[in-house]
Amino acid sequence: MGKYLCAFIKSHPIKRPIATPPVIASQSGHRLPSLTPEQDKALAITPTEELLALPFLQSDAVDGSLYAYQLSKRGNSLRVKAEAVRWGKRGARINTISPGIIMTPLANDELNGPRGESYRKMLEISPVGRAGTPDEVGVLGALRTLIV
User: Fold this and answer.
1) Is 73 among the residues known to form the active site?
2) Lower CB density within 10 Å: C or N end of the chain?
């Protein structure tokens, strides 16, 4: 989550409740196996410039690009959760959106790569039976900014 957005909220008094744009996480971050409570806390509150120094985020501890992606999306959710109460006290709202598979170039590569079969299975069992689109996530994000 942007340190610039956090700095903006700190430096601009909020006179009325406002809605804020959501942070995009992913259902993949929720599918990540449990981390230790200490790791969750570190992802949630470590200053952004220090995140890559965390031992469990070192290249020898991160097994592949899927795990790295899941860690980053878990971090998004945890950082928003850690900030939500503080932002709320100032009249601001912060949320995450955790979509399923969204048809982006990355998802297309995954569908046609070694994890393609598991991706197709996730799509088959999803409530709508298909991948989402970037436009659908954008509309949901825009709607969240309007709800106060």
Assistant:
1) yes
2) C
